[in-house]
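Appendix B, example 12.
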Amino acid sequence: MTESRMQIEAQATPAIIRAQLAANAPICEQLGAELRQQPPTGIMMIGRGTSDHAGVFAKYLFEVEAHTPVFAAAPSVAGVYDSQLQLNGYLAICISQSGQSPDIVEQAKRAKAGGARLVAIVNVTDSPLAQLADTVLPLHAGPELAVAATKSYLASLSALSQICASWQQDQALKDALNALPEQLEQTQRAPACLHAEQLQDLRHCVVLGRGFGYAIAREIALKLKEVLGIHAEAFSSAEFLHGPVTLVERHLTVFNVHIHDEGSDMHRRQLADIKKRGAHLVQMPATETLHPRLQPLAVMQRFYLDIEHAARQLGLNPDAPPGLKKVTETH
């Protein structure tokens, strides 16, 4: 079976992250020193789609490790409602593969105009977004041709982790990042977690995680929609119990994203309760030996390969989801 672009790009991730970490180390060390000297009041994350989902990971990462509040920008506030936020003392981190979506570029302009320092995590380094930024952190992902983003998302998470490790002078996280490419290669060689027969008749599901597990659940749900046409929603496993849990009475399929960290025991108890109520669980386990902040990257690495393979087995083209294109020009 001929390899798809999605498969080729997902498989390239370990080499990309290995090169990215080396190339960006001086930038991150300088940025980290500046953030220690002048800590931001808060962090605004700017992105759409997969990049917005990377911002959810950033929220947990910087709030847990740097004790700094993080919130997601609403690009319509600037682009539709023409409102200028006051962001003196804030850090704005904008994530974009192309660096050219009009609403994202406009939000970045408004963030700077409001007084924020702008960091661009971007794959295209001569893009309008990169030209605006005070600090540019290249993804070094190379051209991403598959509509469903894979390597750029994982490179975004590794870039955010490298910023955090440098800012907090966290040697354990730095060491874990250096070992990450090899861990991702091992993950690629590991047995599949998802199979076509689990997905062929699936029409609706939810994806549950807690903390850093929820941080990637939204991206998993998006790919189930994009690549397989399955209606999927992501919830925190704690939030799911506040109302939506009634859905499991209809034998709902639940993708269980289990990260081995501080929230592990609580998440396990919540999923046991959900299973008891009648849910069908699909397990998406993390590698327990990995640093807990980097386990989500390994889960996503395996998921991308599994969902691509399942799509082709089901007669779908993972490179060309119906109605989608690579750059979405929202205003």
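The first strand starts at residue 43 and ends at 46. The first helix runs from residue 5 to 11.
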